[in-house]
Design goal:
By secondary structure, the chain is mainly beta. The chain has one domain. It contains 2 helices and 9 strands; from the N terminus they run βββββββββαα. A 5-stranded antiparallel beta sheet has the order 4-3-2-1-5, with no helix packed on it. A two-stranded antiparallel ribbon has the order 6-7. The protein has a two-stranded antiparallel ribbon with strand order 8-9. A hairpin with a 2-residue loop joins strand 2 (51-58) and strand 3 (61-66). The two termini are 20 Å apart. The structure holds zinc ion. Residues 97, 99-100, 102, 119-120, 122-123 line the site of zinc ion.
């Protein structure tokens, strides 16, 4: 549902990891403030590949805070969820789609079973 992230939502009780249904913040139904995410957007390029925490939504943008205190807004689809948590630290296993070059997160199951998809979820639908 477009724009669903703008309305009120039920807060999750725990931080989320990537699943087959939800690999980024946009796809996540219940989110928790402070959710660790991986920035896959090129804008600005210097922040690409950094991890940050999601703070809030501001109109259409998901506002995230970086470790150095900088706050920026992103399309929630560009904020990837962690593969898993190890000792309460997020672990991001990021791959690049062989069709469209978009980065996406592997799920823990895909890592454990060594069955990594070579295309992102959007490309796999076709
Ligand atoms: Zn793709």
């Amino acid at each position: 549902m477009p724009g669903a992230e703008e309305g009120p939502f039920k807060q999750a009780s725990n931080f989320s990891v990537a699943t087959a249904e939800a690999r980024n913040l946009r796809d996540l139904r219940n989110r928790k403030y402070g959710q660790p995410i991986y920035v896959s957007s090129d804008h600005p390029l210097a922040r690409k590949g950094q991890t940050a925490t999601w703070e809030k939504f501001n109109v259409r943008l998901a506002v995230v805070k970086f470790l150095d205190g900088v706050v920026l807004g992103y399309d929630p689809a560009d904020l990837l969820l962690p593969t898993c948590f190890e000792n309460a630290r997020p672990v991001f296993e990021i791959r690049t789609c062989q069709s469209c070059r978009a980065p996406f997160t592997l799920t823990q199951q895909e890592v454990e079973e060594k069955q990594e998809p070579t295309r992102c979820p959007a490309c796999l639908e076709f």
